[in-house]
Amino acid sequence: FQHVSPLESFPLDIWNKMLGLMLTAPFQLAQLCIGNMKAKGWGRIINIASAHGLVASPNKTAYVTVKHGLVGFTKAVSLETAGSGVTCNAVCPGYVETPLFIKQAEDRAKDQGISFEDGKKQILAVHPSGEAVKISEVAEIVAFLCSSAANQITGASMVVDGGWTAR
């Protein structure tokens, strides 16, 4: 989920919920699984971060913070598991065509009295490609990271953002 608000009015309860869901939960899940993965000599920990784990945007303090934290967590876990057969990577998509993205475009269109397509274009202005990332594209990266072709990819942030973070 997302909450957009200037820092000075950002609700502490929303901050804590975002930290819990997007940072503490991945920590706990990895903590619960890592022992069995190491014992088996194989495992994949794949965190879904965001382009916001690499760059910041105004009024998204909590989201940017947790996604940066998730990228750092990924790197730390990758070092702890190196050589064990367990890898840990992050996928960092830009704007993905999800129900949340559609709602953001609809809200923008309504607030500005513009078409839905123009609302999407405004949001996607940060993507040099001008296109949203498809859910299937994220899924295919995850599948690749689970394959043997990714045995030596660990601690990486796989960026799929239409060129956003290349700027």
Would you write up a description of this structure?
This protein is mainly alpha-helical and 167 residues long. Helices cover 50% and strands 11% of the residues. The longest helix is centred in the N-terminal third of the chain and has 29 residues. It is globular and about 55 Å long. The model has no long low-confidence stretch (mean pLDDT 97).
What's a concise summary of this model?
Its EC number is 1.1.1.100. This protein is mostly helical and 167 residues long.
Strand order of the largest sheet: 1-2-3
Question: How much of the sequence is in beta strands?
Answer: 5-15%
Q: Helix/strand-derived class?
A: mainly alpha
Instruction: Report the order of strands and helices.
Output: HEHEHHHE
N→C terminal distance: 26 Å
Share of helical residues: 40-55%
**Number of distinct helices:** 5
Query: Which regions are unreliable across 5 or more consecutive residues at pLDDT < 50?
Result: none
Cα-atom radius of gyration: 17 Å
Mean pLDDT: 97
- Please give the largest β-sheet: 3 strands, parallel
Strand segment tally: 3
> Outline, from the CA principal axes?
globular
EC number: 1.1.1.100
InterPro entries: NAD(P)-bd_dom_sf, SDR, SDR_fam
Catalytic activity: a (3R)-hydroxyacyl-[ACP] + NADP(+) = a 3-oxoacyl-[ACP] + NADPH + H(+)
GO molecular function: 3-oxoacyl-[acyl-carrier-protein] reductase (NADPH) activity
